[in-house]
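Long-time lurker, finally posting.

We've been working with Transcriptional regulator (Streptomyces humidus) and I want a structural starting point before designing mutants. I don't trust myself to interpret raw outputs, so I'm hoping someone here can both generate the structure tokens and explain anything notable. Sequence follows.
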Amino acid sequence: MPDEEPHAIRIHLDRLLVERGMTLTELSAQVGITVVNLSVLKNGRAKAIRFSTLSRICEVLRCQPGDLITHAPTEQT
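Top reply, 14 upvotes:
Generated this for you. Predicted structure of Transcriptional regulator:
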């Protein structure tokens, strides 16, 4: 498998789950997507996210997309 292209997008799902006292399994059940797919997102390995999924995650976690996803560019050397 070829190396994935580096990116500066950071996912803060772990922090939000801790703050909400919720497990990945509970979020999965409420959002309606698999734990495996949420885990891929949580670990920053997702290549894309549907707006409908992002919207549902934000509804369940009572957050804004910017609370879940941020851009943290690194300086080019």
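Before you design anything, note these points.
The domain at 11-71 is CATH 1.10.260.40 (434 Repressor (Amino-terminal Domain)).
The longest helix spans residues 51-61.
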